[in-house]
Amino acid sequence: MVDLMPMLEAIVSYMDDGVIVADETGDLAYQNPAAGRLLGFAPNEPVRTLRNCGGLDLEREIGEASGGSGPGSWPVRFERRLRIGNGFRNLEFNASRVPVEAGRRLLRLVIIRDRTEKRRMEAVVNRAKTELVSTDPQMLGILRRIQLIAPTDASVLLQGESGTGKTQIARMSHRLSNRSGGPFVEVNCAAIPESLIESELFGHVKGAYTGATQDRPGRFQAAHKGTLFLDEISEIPLHLQAKLLRALQDQEFEMVGSDRTVRVDVRVISASNHDLRAMVDEGKFRADLYYRLAVIPVSIPPLRDRPGDIPLLLLHYCKQMTEAGHPEEIECSPEAMRMMVEYPWPGNVRELENAVEHSIICAVGAKVVPESLPQNIREYAKQGSRPAPPPARASRAEEKEETEDDFQRRRIVSALRRGNGNKAEAARSLGIDRTTLWRRMRRLGLG
Prior knowledge:
Blueprint: H1 5-13, E1 18-22, E2 28-31, H2 33-38, H3 58-66, E3 76-84, E4 87-100, E5 105-114, H4 116-128, H5 137-149, E6 156-159, H6 166-175, E7 184-188, H7 197-202, H8 219-222, E8 226-231, H9 238-250, E9 252-254, E10 261-263, E11 266-272, H10 276-281, H11 287-293, E12 296-299, H12 309-323, E13 331-332, H13 334-342, H14 348-361, E14 367-368, H15 375-383, H16 396-418, H17 423-430, H18 434-443
Parallel strand pairs: 6-11, 6-12, 7-8, 8-11, 13-14
Antiparallel strand pairs: 1-2, 1-5, 3-4, 4-5, 9-10
Helix pairs in contact: 4-5, 9-11, 12-14, 16-17, 17-18
């Protein structure tokens, strides 16, 4: 019989999980290097006993967790938060009893796992009660930063492509703020006709214009003591930006058709999928308003820059579809998964969510195969590479502007082609309303 113990001991010594073997009295018979490190012992320092494991009486903890010595109470699992050195560490303990010597002796086997990082990430996401799902370091850094700035009244400007989660982050900021008991009012500035934006934001009095049959408070009044979220802030007309600046700066304004000053207490969070700083350079956006909005600027990375999140999001949305009544047994083939991971997702998380629903509905034999995926993903996989960017311009700002406009133009043209020219259908496929589509088409010279 070959003695496997030296080889097993060598394997265990390289494990990241801590391994402890103790006798029935709690004295240690074996520990691997990770056990001492996780419990805060100095290198090569023996743990010696379960009764003193980094300040934790593991013998007592195991006894309490087992609830007794009956066979049904083992194995046991529990987690404890321990002060190790200058910080805290969340450790999960899995303890079992292993018979040796033909059952004449029972040894205690304890496996220790470090859950610190996992608990930190869960704390960020769960505390926010948001649908944002990520393991990307940059995205997690943004979520932690939001936690820091949420309790303040500082204006936050969220910038990123459409579908990256700007609205979810704005809602998260409100929930974590001292204003969470107040209203959270969302305004999509691109969805409101230019002639009505002033009235929508600041309200109007009876007789202010034809059709104004009664006083109507605006969104600033509705958000009093709470948060006002101005999405697509780049669509605010230049002639209204001075009035918006005053409302932000002084927390006061006049309703349309009135000379009476209204005072409010509102925190403003804004968002844009355009580079507002470039728009300032081009004279399309007021510099003083930009700096007032961007007291704390936050740039949200597109999904293609965090590909590690794609499988995680796919599982998240599959679970949501299951909860919505879709079959639970559907699985994804490796080839379909590869195609989705390699796809650049120009519509970001919103496009991915729609793609998951499309794929589940079109699954073949309870399995998502390449033919189940949306057409644009299949076409991209056939091309084998993403389209080349447009030629470089005179400045970086101009290059970014043209790239973004070309991207928007391609999406709109493609959506119109798929909908046979039907603008309502095209708007639905793009995840926007008809008014927003019309304004973007006009800006991009598409009709």
